[in-house]
User: Fold this.
Amino acid sequence: MDLAQLQVFLTVARERSFSRAAEKLYRTQPAVSIAIRKLEESVGQPLFQRGARDAQLTDAGTLLCDYAERILNLRDEIQKGMEDLKGAGRGQLSFGVNESSIHALLPALARFRRLYPGVHIAVHRTFSRDIPREVLNYRLDLGAVSFVPQEEKLAAVEIFRDELAFVVYPEHPLARRRSVDITEVGGETFVAHIVESPFRWRVIQLFEKHRVPLNISVELPTIESIKRFVQMGVGVAIVPRMCVQEEIGRGDLKELRLRQMRILRRVYLVYRQDRPLAAAARALVEILRSKPTRSARRRINHS
Assistant:
């Protein structure tokens, strides 16, 4: 087998179609079929179900898919290594973050971009739980997560500290207050992130501990949509403070201190420590490690 055949195979597997794969690869469909047939001869087993409507993988195809991704990712690592010889001013950098963590990283990425304009930065939105595996499998150079991974090959460095914030719309009856007791929000409609996370469960457990109902009647896919919904007066929300700092500063949202809640959130930079980082990745690590930051917090007094 060769790398070109593996690239064709992965494209067919991802597109679930020989014809769509041919279009994406700018090749004819017969050429794609020939490449797959040669690869099947090489591995000694069929890789796709014959007669299936879509290009469905066999068990052998599913196994090869994982190995093929690793091999091609290693090929990309070689290319990055060669670019690395030219210094940090060129090359590519792949970074995996979840939706909320990107808010903490944008200033550092902007500084990196000013220092190294020749580096192509690709920031991939990835679930936190998947980032360590993606880094280990060479799909990502760096990742940002809100926990310390257990994998021994990964280094984890704290780069940001934050807290969860309780926010309401400016015309909300509680908006004139600076702080509220958790028992006062039991009747509120909460707008929540539909993605499961340890912090979501900590909020749920907090309300259960104080025997206060948590009425999550709206669940949305992004933090941005949650903020918009709260601004529209649909409900209230508990979100990472770094995600709502601008709206609080402009007066579009009002943060209230929930007296029983102080849930810290730390963001860690993760990368492989069993091999040298490429120059571009190393430069960004130095920027992010230079000074762990804390999200700005408005002073909230007791009322």
